[in-house]
Design a protein that fits this description.
Elements lengths: L6 E3 L11 E3 L3 E4 L12 E3 L1 E9 L1 E6 L2 E6 L2 E5 L4 E7 L4 E8 H5 L9 H9 L2 E3 L2 H18 L7 H23 L8 H17 L6 H7 L4 H12 L3 H19 L4 H7 L5 H12 L3 H6 L1
Parallel strand pairs: 1-4
Antiparallel strand pairs: 2-3, 3-10, 4-9, 5-8, 5-10, 6-7, 6-9, 8-11
Helix pairs in contact: 3-4, 5-7, 5-8, 6-7, 9-10
Protein name: Transcriptional regulator, AraC family
GO molecular function: DNA-binding transcription factor activity; sequence-specific DNA binding
Keywords: DNA-binding, Transcription, Transcription regulation
Length: 292
């Protein structure tokens, strides 16, 4: 049954390729993707990927939305996002960094003020950057690569994590300069929203009720909905529904599971209820979407 689900991939998938340096299954750095395996099917990445395109273009879907990364652009894919790779030009080149979820979790506690960056990236995973910003990313990439190569250094992992914290701040600065809508969320609300996203990402398949998550957070459903709407512009129910529909679409497009099996996977009472839910949010039945 595992082959029928959305494929999950991590850094270990590319560890056999030449010209890439690693820190275990936590970190990879490289500047050539000609040997990189491409999948035309939706795939969930268990890592964050950072790229600056130096030449040519590359197309992809991130959470089923189409994007094109071209010369002079930075592209970022966050962990657990669903990626479907499209075509790329023969002359496509860039510099790349891949970081596992656990490696990022090791530095997140020191980056509380960077939390709005992840909203900005989700809204705009591909941004144009200036030549100076491109050079800054090149400098970090070069220095990180030189540190990763020092395999005899017992603090190689810690040094890399420290440099990544600095790189995240640089990227936040870039996004602030290139994003027209700047948020200044209240710290308390931001923290509640972060916890809400964490809870729904863990339980959205089993629980689609706002009150369920409100109870877990010791809040009223009304207060949670107000906070989520203030911070993100979307209601708590819309966030839950968006995750469920995204998962359903990816399963319909990428797996051999029947509609009934997908309904079971997402813990709907029956296929009919799943079909009505899916059509309400997408305007078409699961079978129509699969045929599309």
């Amino acid at each position: 049954m595992e082959t029928k689900s959305i494929r999950n991939v991590d850094i270990s998938l590319i560890q056999h390729l030449p010209m890439i340096d690693f820190i275990g299954n936590d970190f990879a750095i490289f500047d050539d993707i000609k040997d990189m395996p491409l999948s035309p099917y939706p795939t969930r990445l268990n890592a964050a990927c950072f790229c600056v395109c130096l030449k040519g273009w590359c197309r992809m879907h991130i959470n089923l939305q189409k994007y094109e990364l071209s010369e002079g652009m930075m592209g970022i894919i966050l962990p657990d996002q669903i990626v479907q790779q499209g075509g790329r030009s023969d002359d496509f080149s860039g510099i790349f960094i891949a970081i596992s979820k656990s490696f990022i979790d090791g530095v997140l506690p020191t980056m509380q003020q960077l939390f709005p960056l992840f909203f900005l990236i989700k809204e705009r995973p591909c941004v144009h950057i200036t030549p100076e910003e491109q050079q800054a990313f090149k400098d970090y990439h070069s220095f990180l690569w030189s540190r990763v190569k020092l395999k005899d250094n017992p603090f190689r992992k810690e040094i890399t994590q420290g440099l990544l914290v600095s790189l995240f701040y640089e990227i936040y600065h870039i996004y602030q300069g290139h994003t027209t809508q700047e948020r200044i969320p209240k710290t308390r609300k931001e923290d509640l929203f972060e916890r809400f996203l964490r809870y729904i990402s863990e339980s959205y398949k089993e629980n689609r009720s706002v009150s369920y998550y409100a109870d877990k957070m010791f809040l009223t459903a009304k207060h949670l909905s107000t906070v989520v709407k203030d911070v993100s512009g979307k209601t708590a129910g819309e966030w839950i529904d968006s995750l469920v529909i995204l998962e359903a679409k990816a399963l319909l497009k990428s797996s051999e599971l029947s509609v009934q099996e997908i309904a079971d996977e997402l813990h709907f009472a029956n296929q009919s209820f799943f079909g009505k839910y899916f059509k309400h949010h997408t305007g078409m039945s699961p079978k129509e979407y699969r045929r599309q």
